[in-house]
Fold this protein.
Amino acid sequence: MTVTFRHLAEQAALALTSAALFVSFFVFNEWVFSSFQYSDGINWIFLPAGFRVILVLTMGLPGAIGLMMGSWYIDSASMTSTAWFFPFINGVVSGFTPWLVMQFLIRQGWLAPQLGQITASRLLQVTLIFSAASAMSDQLVWWSLAKPDANILVDVWPMFVGNVLGALLMLYGMKFVIDRMRSAQRRKD
Amino acid sequence: MDKTLTPFVSAYLRFLQLAKVVQALPDGQEMDANEQALLESVVLRWYEKQPMTVREAISLAALGSPATLHKRITRLREKDMLSTLNLEGDRRAKFLIPTQRTLDFFQHLGQSMQQANTNQPA
């Protein structure tokens, strides 16, 4: 019982961390890359997409739940008693698409559950697949629930490009920080 | 195995895996086969405690012409895989020595070789 409670508590903490990181980088992205906005909700550079990759790969389901909660928090201003369904579904799709893709890749043998033996090229391929799946699922939800007049075949591309660029910036930012830390450690030694 | 790990431990271990892979992401600093062959020759001489001079390196006819080899040395220096050393008393001779990045690279190759050996069926 104690173990179950501890597991639940840790999963809740991971989900909250995931949500906080996603929201923080969403706000940061709006602030830094506001001039790269293609249309409402679509940016040519979308840094939180990088967190989608990192959080779902490292945290699994709690990471996806955190992404969903983060998305709900971001959309909370537009949630009213009559217009809650679209933001609600948008959050579910935004959070669970990467997780479902990850489960599919694990089932296909492309990824190990603990990420063992993952290579750099496989990580880049996974990033591309996550970006494409997120862009397509988000656009499908928008088209079917919110913007039936939207041209999904056109709008999906800026979203895909934004996801890919954002994810690559995040991953290479992480690489830059780790490389600098290792160099500093070597100098100290 | 999943069941014995707490969510925190599991997330941390996956993060370590991811961090290791992120470090191996291509960054435009990779060497081609010709550069690696030259680097191996230079590092072997350094390992034998007889570091190669630039003049000797550009004379390795089996690896290319002097002009080509000079360009390759420049590229390896730009990629932080080689540095030069002047000995006291002889400032004309420039010795080529590996950098820490090069040693890390060979260490990685050594580890991979060892891993491949241990993974081989008996």
